[in-house]
Every structure is written in C-alpha cells, then in structure tokens.
C-alpha cells in the first residue's frame, strides 16, 4: 500500500501521491466505499481506471477523510463536506490529491511523445519560451497546468489556448504562474511541477 510521497505545498495545502502497485481486489477489500463509489467502480470498464479511483480513497484516508466526506457536483468536480478544497488526478500507475483551505487544482500525466502532435491544440503564447531540449516534459507541464486551472474554474467552458495562459518557465524552475482569463474571471495562480519517474505532477493554487 504505497503512499509514494506527500508535499507540504504551503501551510494550508498538502499534496498526496500514491504509486499504484495493488490489484483491484486488494484495494477494494481494505477500504470503506460509499454506495456512489461502488456503483461508479462497477461501471468502469478498465481495471487501470478502477485502481486509480480506488487508490484515491487511500489518499483521502491519508488526508484524514473517508469516502463519505467526499461528494461530487454534476460537473464531476469533487468537494469535501468540511469546506476544504480538494482536487483529484489519476494516470496509469499514479494517483494524487491536493487538499487545501483555498482553491486548488492538480494533474498528473505520463510523459509521452504524442503530446508534440497535439501541442497546437493547447499551446499559444507559451510557444515563445519553449525550447527543443526536453520538449515533451515542458509540454506536459503546460498541459498539466491548464488541466489544473480548468479543475479550479467553477463553470468550465474554458479554451486551453485562449483562457489559460501559462507564464514562461524552465524545467529546473519547478514553478511558474498560470492565469484563468475568461469574462469577469481574471485570476493568477502559482503553478508547481515536478517529474516523478516518467510522469509530470502539476498543481495550481493561489
Ligand atoms: C475533467 C478533466 C479536467 C479531467 O482530467 P483528466 O486528465 O481527464 O483526468 P484526471 O485523472 O487528471 O482527473 C480526473 C478527476 O478530475 C476531477 N474532475 C472531473 N470533472 C471535474 C471538473 N469539472 N472540475 C474539477 N475537477 C473535475 C474528478 O475528481 C476526476 O476523478 P474522479 O472522478 O475519479 O474523482 C478533463 O477530462 C477535461 O474535461 N479537461 C478539459 C477538456 C478540454 O477542454 N480539453 C481541451 C484541450 S485542447
């Protein structure tokens, strides 16, 4: 049951990362699940997805919450009953949550060559600072930052190229800033990122 790491992002914000090495049965047998979660798991076709979803319940437990203290709004956004903010991600063999007293978003993605082919769909002003070396990792940070910001915004309907610009960074910086600029919403967030094995972990907070 490997909790891979925790990151104290600031005094009110903690990130929890799980490396998923357990099979579905092992994860299911050792944790309490509410009716909604049971029904969701049964509808999931892929075992990878089930393991991601279940491992998040272990991260919740690490953060001091049970599955009963988490609920979702109709847009799929997770919330905690005590009013703290939470964001969730799972990708192949890793999952992560971020819990805070303020708005937060998190994303974890495997670094893949394919991201170069789809970069034109989500990269706009960021083209100005991209360099050829470690391009996959840079693009994955930008993607993860925009997904994290998307998870923060209350209404969705955001265009990745237009509404979520990410400020210049080098991979060695491990942080940058990102914006949500849409209609009356005009906020900037601190973006933190790091490489974990062949994955990029990104989280946004303000
Ligand atoms: C919702 C979305 C952000 C999820 O991201 P993902 O990379 O597919 O998956 P992740 O594992 O990182 O995140 C999944 C978690 O996000 C959370 N989530 C789902 N919808 C959400 C929303 N509207 N707001 C915040 N969080 C949300 C859930 O907790 C979910 O996990 P769970 O249901 O198991 O608890 C993504 O599917 C999405 O819609 N992105 C925007 C699409 C888009 O505009 N793309 C254009 C790019 S050019």
UniProtKB/TrEMBL annotation:
<dbReference type="Pfam" id="PF01648">
    <property type="entry name" value="ACPS"/>
</dbReference>
<dbReference type="GO" id="GO:0016740">
    <property type="term" value="F:transferase activity"/>
</dbReference>
<protein>
    <submittedName>
        <fullName>4'-phosphopantetheinyl transferase superfamily protein</fullName>
    </submittedName>
</protein>
<dbReference type="InterPro" id="IPR008278">
    <property type="entry name" value="4-PPantetheinyl_Trfase_dom"/>
</dbReference>
<keyword id="KW-0808">Transferase</keyword>
<feature type="domain" description="4'-phosphopantetheinyl transferase">
    <location>
        <begin position="103"/>
        <end position="179"/>
    </location>
</feature>
<dbReference type="InterPro" id="IPR037143">
    <property type="entry name" value="4-PPantetheinyl_Trfase_dom_sf"/>
</dbReference>
């Amino acid at each position: 049951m490997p909790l891979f790491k925790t990151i104290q992002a600031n005094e009110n914000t903690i990130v929890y990362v799980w490396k998923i090495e357990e099979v579905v049965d092992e994860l299911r047998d050792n944790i309490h699940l509410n009716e909604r979660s049971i029904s969701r798991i049964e509808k999931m076709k892929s075992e990878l997805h089930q393991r991601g979803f279940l491992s998040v319940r272990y991260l919740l437990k690490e953060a001091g919450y049970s599955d009963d203290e988490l609920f979702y709004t109709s847009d799929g956004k997770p919330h905690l009953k005590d009013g703290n903010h939470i964001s969730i991600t799972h990708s192949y063999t890793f999952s992560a949550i971020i819990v805070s007293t303020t708005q937060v978003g998190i994303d974890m993605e495997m670094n893949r060559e394919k991201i170069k082919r789809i970069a034109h769909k989500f990269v706009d002003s960021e083209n100005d600072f991209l360099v050829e070396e470690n391009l996959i990792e840079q693009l994955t940070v930008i993607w993860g930052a925009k997904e994290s910001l998307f998870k923060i915004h209350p209404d969705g309907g955001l265009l990745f190229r237009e509404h979520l610009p990410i400020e210049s960074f080098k991979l060695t910086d491990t942080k940058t800033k990102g914006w949500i600029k849409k209609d009356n919403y005009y906020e900037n967030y601190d973006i933190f990122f790091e490489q974990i094995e062949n994955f990029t972990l990104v989280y946004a907070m303000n």
